[in-house]
């Protein structure tokens, strides 16, 4: 590898009132560029995640408004199959769906995914039987598999490593807000007097805007820095300098199959995916059963929709704070352990506390925090620790594992116990990965010497095995 230290990799920050020498990042100009990127990329992607979570999670609200009685014969097993059908296509399509953003412009890929799930979610309003609602859920899974992890890949095209987690928190936070908005919308819809079933109105209200959003994403979301007309020439040069400072300036050559192979053959892909699956179990439980869990505390079905709002609101604030500090200290693993510990406490309280509904409601706050706040942390960990874009795309696609478990009213001991057990497993596995990354970084320091920040690291060719590459703890 060429160890030459070119001057254009020098990234010293300069004061706002100084004119930077050539090849040095102007801090004032960088802040202005970040504001411009955030003003377009964040709103569009946040709206997509809000839309996706509303269209995925409204099945739980619709269940309380009569869907299960009208289409599923009040059969809990049929309802579980309806939930599971989403995750089948979501899981199978996640890797090819994420790679699609490498094969074609990412704004086209993301917009197409949004259109697919928006149309399918709207069509759920017209479902007349058990089979039709399963088909719609399958297509929602396909649409979201194109979008789910591709946004993380898209962020890595525009933002530096220590900028991603905070923005992913805002992005994933839309999912937390979706839970709050979903509860409010469902509460309002439940009071509509119409000859049309309220659960059908709910699907229309939350599904149709996604179709329009998909068109807007395809037209207005910036694609890649080297091709987007969104940037001026000066801004494009600054963006390349920012990315080059962290060896993220990989050329767009479509899918690199060596990077795909590296992701499939790297044991770390499977270990991190397992940690994400532990979180996904909580997330799928919240998506399908949270309103029902809250209703089990003694609230009416309508009020249960309303009482789901505060846990999601608190979860959103907690997520922003945790991921902001994660970016500040440039660490992921310890924060993942913290959030899973809170998740563990929530499921433990739901499992062992029977008659104290105030304490059980507090546990709901812990579960929401655990279900959502780990998502941007783990996604950022993957993005930071994969060398090339194609390796990153496949590894991110790996994360879309699914976990869906049947529940038994009123205490759901099986589901609570499984969530508790998998939270413990996630804490142990994350701790082991922290130890591994520390030791591997120390080994590379002994073999290669301390990495020079001005040295070009050939991550595009050698991925995370490139000399000079170090893992984020």
TrEMBL record:
**Record keywords: Transmembrane helix included?**
yes
Keyword field contains Transport: yes
Q: Where are the transmembrane segments?
A: 108-127, 134-156, 168-189, 201-221, 270-294, 306-323, 335-354, 361-382, 416-437
- Keyword vocabulary terms for this entry: Membrane, Transmembrane, Transmembrane helix, Transport
Q: How does it sit in the membrane?
A: Multi-pass membrane protein
Basic and acidic residues: bias regions? 1-13
- Where does the protein principally reside? membrane
| PROSITE patterns reported for this sequence | MFS (PS50850)
| Domain spans labelled Major facilitator superfamily (MFS) profile | 41-473
Q: Report the subcellular localization.
A: Membrane
Under the heading InterPro entries, the entry gives:
MFS, MFS_dom, MFS_trans_sf
Q: Where is this region: Disordered?
A: 1-22
- Name the record gives this protein: Major facilitator superfamily (MFS) profile domain-containing protein
